[in-house]
Amino acid sequence: MGIKEIKKELLSKDKEELVKQILELYKKYSPVKEYFDFYLNPNEGELYEKYKEKVREGFYPKKGYQLKLSISRQAISDFRKLEVSKERLGELLLYFVECGVEYTNDFGDIDEQFYLSIENAFGDSLKLLEGDDVLEKYKERAEKVVDDSERTGWGFYDSLLEIYDNFYL
What we know:
- 76% of the residues lie in helices and 0% in strands.
- It is mainly α and 169 residues long.
- Helix 5 runs antiparallel to helix 6, helix 7 packs parallel to helix 9 and helix 8 packs antiparallel against helix 9.
- It starts with a helix and ends with a helix.
Protein backbone atom coordinates (compact mmCIF):
# COMPACT_ATOMS: atom_id res chain seq x y z
CA MET A 1 0.00 0.00 0.00
CA GLY A 2 1.28 3.48 -0.78
CA ILE A 3 0.61 7.09 0.13
CA LYS A 4 -2.07 7.39 -2.54
CA GLU A 5 -4.14 4.53 -1.09
CA ILE A 6 -3.67 5.75 2.50
CA LYS A 7 -4.71 9.28 1.53
CA LYS A 8 -7.81 7.97 -0.25
CA GLU A 9 -8.77 5.89 2.78
CA LEU A 10 -8.19 8.75 5.23
CA LEU A 11 -10.24 11.16 3.12
CA SER A 12 -13.15 8.72 3.29
CA LYS A 13 -13.20 8.91 7.12
CA ASP A 14 -14.97 11.54 9.16
CA LYS A 15 -13.18 13.69 11.71
CA GLU A 16 -14.22 11.57 14.68
CA GLU A 17 -12.89 8.38 13.07
CA LEU A 18 -9.58 10.09 12.26
CA VAL A 19 -9.18 11.35 15.81
CA LYS A 20 -9.91 7.88 17.14
CA GLN A 21 -7.32 6.36 14.77
CA ILE A 22 -4.66 8.91 15.73
CA LEU A 23 -5.28 8.35 19.43
CA GLU A 24 -4.93 4.61 18.90
CA LEU A 25 -1.58 5.14 17.13
CA TYR A 26 -0.51 7.47 19.93
CA LYS A 27 -1.21 4.81 22.56
CA LYS A 28 0.38 1.88 20.69
CA TYR A 29 3.53 3.30 19.08
CA SER A 30 6.13 5.24 21.02
CA PRO A 31 7.57 7.00 17.92
CA VAL A 32 4.08 8.35 17.16
CA LYS A 33 3.66 9.43 20.78
CA GLU A 34 7.03 11.14 20.73
CA TYR A 35 6.21 12.89 17.45
CA PHE A 36 2.91 14.29 18.76
CA ASP A 37 4.39 15.20 22.14
CA PHE A 38 7.09 17.20 20.37
CA TYR A 39 4.63 18.65 17.86
CA LEU A 40 2.38 19.92 20.64
CA ASN A 41 5.20 20.99 22.98
CA PRO A 42 8.34 21.61 20.92
CA ASN A 43 10.98 21.62 23.68
CA GLU A 44 14.15 20.96 21.68
CA GLY A 45 16.40 21.19 24.75
CA GLU A 46 14.59 18.41 26.57
CA LEU A 47 14.40 16.28 23.44
CA TYR A 48 18.10 16.86 22.74
CA GLU A 49 19.05 15.59 26.20
CA LYS A 50 16.97 12.46 25.69
CA TYR A 51 18.62 11.70 22.34
CA LYS A 52 22.05 12.51 23.69
CA GLU A 53 21.59 9.63 26.14
CA LYS A 54 20.56 7.35 23.28
CA VAL A 55 23.66 8.31 21.27
CA ARG A 56 25.88 7.61 24.28
CA GLU A 57 24.20 4.24 24.81
CA GLY A 58 25.61 3.04 21.46
CA PHE A 59 29.15 3.69 22.66
CA TYR A 60 28.79 2.94 26.36
CA PRO A 61 25.83 0.57 26.87
CA LYS A 62 24.32 0.28 30.32
CA LYS A 63 24.47 -3.49 29.91
CA GLY A 64 27.50 -5.13 28.38
CA TYR A 65 30.50 -3.56 26.75
CA GLN A 66 29.98 -4.04 23.03
CA LEU A 67 30.07 -0.99 20.75
CA LYS A 68 26.75 -0.66 18.89
CA LEU A 69 26.98 2.31 16.56
CA SER A 70 23.65 1.29 15.06
CA ILE A 71 21.95 2.46 18.28
CA SER A 72 23.63 5.85 18.04
CA ARG A 73 22.91 6.20 14.33
CA GLN A 74 19.27 5.27 14.86
CA ALA A 75 18.98 7.89 17.59
CA ILE A 76 20.33 10.54 15.22
CA SER A 77 17.99 9.38 12.46
CA ASP A 78 14.96 9.47 14.78
CA PHE A 79 15.97 12.90 16.07
CA ARG A 80 16.26 14.19 12.50
CA LYS A 81 12.76 12.86 11.67
CA LEU A 82 11.27 15.04 14.39
CA GLU A 83 12.32 18.03 12.28
CA VAL A 84 14.36 19.76 14.96
CA SER A 85 16.45 22.81 14.12
CA LYS A 86 19.68 22.43 12.15
CA GLU A 87 21.59 23.67 15.19
CA ARG A 88 20.23 20.96 17.48
CA LEU A 89 20.83 18.27 14.88
CA GLY A 90 24.36 19.56 14.28
CA GLU A 91 24.95 19.62 18.02
CA LEU A 92 23.79 16.01 18.37
CA LEU A 93 26.08 14.94 15.53
CA LEU A 94 28.95 16.76 17.23
CA TYR A 95 28.14 14.88 20.43
CA PHE A 96 28.26 11.62 18.44
CA VAL A 97 31.76 12.61 17.29
CA GLU A 98 32.81 13.47 20.85
CA CYS A 99 31.62 10.05 22.02
CA GLY A 100 33.49 8.38 19.16
CA VAL A 101 36.75 10.13 20.03
CA GLU A 102 36.29 9.34 23.72
CA TYR A 103 35.57 5.70 22.89
CA THR A 104 38.68 5.24 20.77
CA ASN A 105 40.79 6.89 23.47
CA ASP A 106 39.32 4.54 26.07
CA PHE A 107 39.54 1.32 24.09
CA GLY A 108 42.30 1.84 21.54
CA ASP A 109 42.38 1.33 17.82
CA ILE A 110 39.01 0.43 16.30
CA ASP A 111 38.64 -0.05 12.53
CA GLU A 112 38.61 2.12 9.45
CA GLN A 113 34.81 2.04 9.08
CA PHE A 114 34.41 3.34 12.63
CA TYR A 115 36.74 6.26 11.95
CA LEU A 116 35.10 7.08 8.61
CA SER A 117 31.72 7.18 10.32
CA ILE A 118 32.97 9.61 12.95
CA GLU A 119 34.77 11.77 10.36
CA ASN A 120 31.65 11.99 8.19
CA ALA A 121 29.54 12.96 11.19
CA PHE A 122 32.07 15.66 12.11
CA GLY A 123 31.84 17.21 8.65
CA ASP A 124 28.05 16.91 8.62
CA SER A 125 27.73 18.52 12.05
CA LEU A 126 29.90 21.51 11.13
CA LYS A 127 28.04 21.92 7.84
CA LEU A 128 24.70 22.06 9.67
CA LEU A 129 26.06 24.49 12.25
CA GLU A 130 27.56 26.66 9.53
CA GLY A 131 24.20 26.77 7.79
CA ASP A 132 22.57 28.05 10.97
CA ASP A 133 25.31 30.67 11.41
CA VAL A 134 26.23 29.34 14.85
CA LEU A 135 29.49 27.66 13.87
CA GLU A 136 31.58 29.98 16.04
CA LYS A 137 29.56 28.96 19.11
CA TYR A 138 30.84 25.37 18.68
CA LYS A 139 34.44 26.17 17.80
CA GLU A 140 35.84 25.19 21.20
CA ARG A 141 34.09 21.82 21.18
CA ALA A 142 35.18 21.13 17.61
CA GLU A 143 38.77 22.04 18.46
CA LYS A 144 38.69 19.74 21.50
CA VAL A 145 37.50 16.87 19.29
CA VAL A 146 40.54 17.34 17.08
CA ASP A 147 42.94 17.72 20.01
CA ASP A 148 41.55 14.64 21.77
CA SER A 149 42.03 12.53 18.64
CA GLU A 150 45.73 13.29 18.30
CA ARG A 151 46.95 9.87 19.48
CA THR A 152 44.64 7.72 17.38
CA GLY A 153 45.29 5.55 14.34
CA TRP A 154 44.10 5.28 10.74
CA GLY A 155 44.90 8.95 10.01
CA PHE A 156 41.88 9.85 12.13
CA TYR A 157 43.49 12.91 13.67
CA ASP A 158 44.64 14.20 10.27
CA SER A 159 41.16 13.80 8.81
CA LEU A 160 39.47 15.56 11.71
CA LEU A 161 42.04 18.36 11.57
CA GLU A 162 41.43 18.81 7.85
CA ILE A 163 37.67 18.96 8.37
CA TYR A 164 38.13 21.44 11.22
CA ASP A 165 40.43 23.62 9.10
CA ASN A 166 37.91 23.65 6.25
CA PHE A 167 35.36 25.30 8.54
CA TYR A 168 37.41 27.38 10.94
CA LEU A 169 40.41 28.65 8.97
